[in-house]
Amino acid sequence: MWTKSFSRYTRILLVSAAVIIGAQISISLFESDFRVSIGIFGIFMSLILFGKYPILPVTVISALCVFFSRTLMHWLRFGSWNPQSYFPEMFFYLVYGVLFFLYCRKNDYELSMYSLPWMFLFDYLANITELLTRRGMDAFSFQSQAGVLLVALLRTALAGLFLFCLSHYKFSLLSAEHARRYQNLLLLISELNGEVVLMQKGTRMIEDTMSTAYRLYHDMSERNIDEFLTRTALQIARDVHEIKKDYNLIVRGLSSSMELNSENDGMSLDDILTILKSSLDASLPKGKRLFFNIQLEENLYTQNHYLLLSIFRNLFNNAIEAADGNPVELSVRQSSTDSSYVIEVEDHGPGIDPEDMEQIFEPGFSTKINYETGEVNRGLGLSLVKDFIELRLGGTIRVTSVPGKTVFTLTIPKEKWSGL
User: Fold this and answer.
1) Which residue has the higher pLDDT, 249 or 213?
2) What is the dihedral sign for C-alpha 411, 416, 419, 420?
3) In this predicted model, which residue has the larger pLDDT, 156 or 263?
4) Angle at 347 between CA 342 and CA 352, to 5 degrees
5) DSSP letters of 378-400?
6) Residue 345: beta bridge partners?
7) Which sign, positive or negative, has the C-alpha torsion 30, 35, 39, 40?
8) In the 8-state DSSP scheme, what is residue 376?
9) How much is the pLDDT for 6?
10) Domain locations in the chain?
């Protein structure tokens, strides 16, 4: 409760201070004591910037403090007190503040471009009230009315400009946030695609295990082996069958989701690489930098973007994890032949040991070990890349490596590239 009270009083003081400071930026109109300032913007803009705050206390405090500050400044300049000249200005702030409070309470403290006509009216009425206390019925003369209307119009236009700039800024932030979320969604779906491929492989292994268990049961039955062991073999086959059914349901569900997402519009190769670069920059270890060089003969368009995101992400991550220098240098070059597109992914890391070259595409093979935790990488990245390129895209992948330079060359048939 004390914290809430502190926050309330802090807001009152901050907004009041903004109004008082703004009131010092002023010009004289009609007469030297009638001053037009931007102080009133503090009441209006604070609601936009900071949200709901106690408007009436701010109004009273601001009116009193502006009055005392004007009187003090007069004394400092002329050596005499003249409070009656500045007392009417209090009515301006009080009238504007009360009208603004009533409007905000009715509209749930929300301001928009539709609020501007009301702000114009409040400004006009507040100025007329001050002029009436100063000049009586002369406040309704043509000159006074024209001046007050012009001031109200200018201040309202300035408020409208502020609202427009703020809404444009918020829209830019929202667009950037949506773009970031869309990129993350694309990367997530591409990663799920890879997991689905692994699960489909797992399904085949489960089917083989189930078939083996049934064959074992039949062999044991024909040989009249111990009845308990024979029934155990049958139970294992049945249990594996149930596991297979549940597993297939999960795989089908994920596959359906992937197919639905694959129906979306495709992407250009340049966009795919840009998204991955942005993701890699954000995930690099502290102090590590990435130099990313892209050379595209054509900015190819494809609807296999989820596959390609997964392929390139695995290749890039492998290069970054293996890199022992800083910055990490990655290059992607695209060219074409009569029937295929050729993409080279090059890094300048330590290279691949010749003894490992024939195994790097094997499932489970990995040279990445965390010596602090003993954790070994599951070694599925390059295996997935090979499956995607050969089985899904009908292409080939080969690798050449020497210390300081490793190049993965992807060759994909043109008719398979677009995915149409």
Assistant:
1) 213
2) positive
3) 156
4) 100
5) ---HHHHHHHIIIIIS--EEEEE
6) 332, 408
7) negative
8) B
9) 45
10) 2-140, 184-262, 267-417
Say if CB 87 and CB 33 are below 8 A apart: no
For 21-75, the DSSP string reads: HHHTSEEEESEEEEEEESTTHHHHHHHHHH----HHHHHHHHHHHHHHHHHHHHH
> How far is it, in rounded angstroms, from Cα 351 to Cα 150?
74
Distance set, CA 9 to CA 12, 15, 63, 388 (Å): 5, 10, 17, 62
- Residue whose entry in the numeric block shows the structure tokens 């595209």: 296
| Those residues with Cβ within 8 angstroms of residue 120's Cβ, 6 or more apart along the chain or in another chain | 152, 153, 156
The residue-averaged pLDDT of 199-207 equals: 75
Q: By C-alpha distance, which of 376, 375, 352, 353 is closest to 365?
A: 376
pLDDT band, very low/low/confident/very high, at 377 (cuts 50, 70, 90): very low
* Fold of the CATH domain 267-417: Heat Shock Protein 90 (3.30.565)
Given a contact cutoff of 8 angstroms between Cβ atoms, the answer to whether 299 and 329 are in contact is: no
Q: Write down how long the chain is.
A: 420
pLDDT, tens digit, for every residue of 232-291?
888 888 888 788 777 777 767 766 665 555 555 678 888 888 888 888 887 777 777 888
Q: Which residues have a Cβ under 8 Å from the Cβ of 130 and sit 6 or more positions away?
A: 34, 88, 89, 91, 92, 95
Say if CB 300 and CB 261 are below 8 A apart: no
For residue 414, give the amino acid letter.
K
The Cβ of residue 184 has, within 10 Å, a number of other Cβ atoms equal to: 14
CA angle at residue 41 from 39 to 42, to 5 degrees? 75
- Choice among 104-118, 143-157, 308-322, 372-386 with the minimum mean pLDDT: 372-386
Question: How far apart are the C-alpha atoms of 254 and 195, rounded to whole Å?
Answer: 9
Determine the pLDDT at residue 57: 87
CA distance 13 to 33: 26
Instruction: Measure the CA–CA gap between 237 and 216, rounded to whole angstroms.
Output: 9
The CA distances from residue 49 to 21, 65, 167, 416, in Å, are 17, 22, 11, 53
Place of tokens 């295996």: 383
The yes-or-no verdict on residue 376 having pLDDT over 50 is no
Cβ(130)–Cβ(88) under 8 Å?
yes
Cis peptide before 327 (omega within 30 of 0): yes
- Residue recorded with tokens 């549940």: 246
